[in-house]
Amino acid sequence: MSPAHSAESPDVAAAPKPAPRTVLDASDISRALIRIAHEILERNRGADPVVLLGIPTRGVGLARRVSDRIAAVEGQSVPTGSLDVTMYRDDIRLKPPRGLEHTDIPPGGIDGKVVVLVDDVLFSGRTIRAALDAIGDIGRPRAVQLAVLVDRGHRELPIRADYVGKNLPTSLVERVTVHLTEYDGADAVLIADKTGTGAKA
């Protein structure tokens, strides 16, 4: 007669990790960006004062898309660039070294302009704090506004987005991943447990 299994015996297979769940598909993302573009125009009474600065990586792609949608409405392009915040982050000494991204300020600069920062996910707010410091070294805009595709909450600083594609309540054990065709081959926003296959907090 075989001895009974110990309570600690691994006779039950571990449960599979849940797959990431899609919370925004390509159509949802497109509608969100159209809405953000219209809200920017309404709030700023047109496109004339606006400069869009995307935060690398995916914030840059989103900024270009918002610019395209504004141009479709206004019939004029909006100055669009990118703003690397790597050297302004307050956790730079706490994480492994990372390569610098590209900063590209439009030829007209940002002095006296309404700068709209564009990012994919708003989380703790520390990336945006770093972006504000970076802007201060570049020029003096009339105002700075923030547009994000997803606001997932859990702020650590008093920062709030002016334009939000989707408010997405999350827990700290979840990851939100934004995929864009320009970088990932498809558009989607996914959410998954951090022990799963998510790629960005």
Structure description:
With 201 residues, this protein is an alpha/beta fold. The protein has a domain at 26-92 and 99-170: Rossmann fold. Helices cover 25% and strands 23% of the residues. The protein contains 4 helices and 8 strands; from the N terminus they run βαβαββαβββαβ. It has a 5-stranded parallel sheet, with helices on both faces. Strands 1-8-7 form a 3-stranded antiparallel sheet. The radius of gyration is 20 Å and the shape is globular. Mean pLDDT is 89; it is low at 1-10 and 196-201. InterPro entries: PRTase-like, PRTase_dom, PyrR, PyrR_bifunctional. A motif (PRPP-binding) lies at residues 115-127. Residues 25-166 form the Phosphoribosyltransferase domain. Its EC number is 2.4.2.9.
Strand order of the largest sheet: 3-2-4-5-6
How many extended strands? 8
The name of the CATH architecture of the domain at 26-92 and 99-170 is 3-Layer(aba) Sandwich
Largest β sheet strand count, sense and barrel closure:
5 strands, parallel
**Named CATH topology of the domain at 26-92 and 99-170:** Rossmann fold
Please tell me how large the radius of gyration is.
20 Å
Mean pLDDT: 89
What proportion strand? 15-25%
Shape: globular
Sequence stretches where pLDDT stays below 50 over 5 or more residues = 1-10, 196-201
Note the total helix count: 4
Order of helices and strands: EHEHEEHEEEHE
Structural class: alpha/beta
Terminal residue distance: 52 Å
Kindly provide the name of the CATH class of the domain at 26-92 and 99-170.
Alpha Beta
Helix content percent band: 25-40%
Organism: Kribbella pittospori
Pfam family, one: Pribosyltran
Protein name: Bifunctional protein PyrR
Enzyme class: transferase
